Amino acid sequence: KQEVTQIPAALSVPEGENLVLNCSFTDSAIYNLQWFRQDPGKGLTSLLLIQSSQREQTSGRLNASLDKSSGRSTLYIAASQPGDSATYLCAVRYQGAQKLVFGQGTRLTINP
Amino acid sequence: NAGVTQTPKFRVLKTGQSMTLLCAQDMNHEYMYWYRQDPGMGLRLIHYSVGEGTTAKGEVPDGYNVSRLKKQNFLLGLESAAPSQTSVYFCASSYSIPDQPQHFGDGTRLSIL
User: Is-contact A90 A100, C-beta < 8 A?
Assistant: First the structure.
């Protein structure tokens, strides 16, 4: 079964720390992997999209990596800020599928 | 930049009532999707469309119908609402090329009493 797992479910860190969020997927045959941010009661904001042929993507303080062979992706957030507090979702588009398969998300809290 | 717009944002229904959720996108995307988000279940695909006049079932289609009469609009209908359909519904759209991202609306929070 094609699944996506995010561990931990929740993470709390002091402001200023660098941190890593993890995402694992069960099948290496993917088109791409997308990281989203979701604020409470809000929709999904796309942060980064990594194609299957890419190893990483960067946007500002965010860096996402992809290792298809091990079925893992990480989202690195540098110099975390309280405004980074949100739930971060990882989603995979497997080959041959129209839908995105989502992880359960990691709820991140940055403490001032 | 409107992107993906969902209407309404909130709704409370009684069991057995019907309603239609509207999704509109202004990015000329071919593909459109309806997901539902439930605690502990993540986001799951209900129905999707690969073009005007086409629809297909997703992961959890039962109890829902959809229509795509115009390229920019994708409607999700509940003919006879049930408490199990209490959820947050998200619409998304994308280009037809598989390596393009999906863009999401802000969601519709639906409660069925």
Answer: no
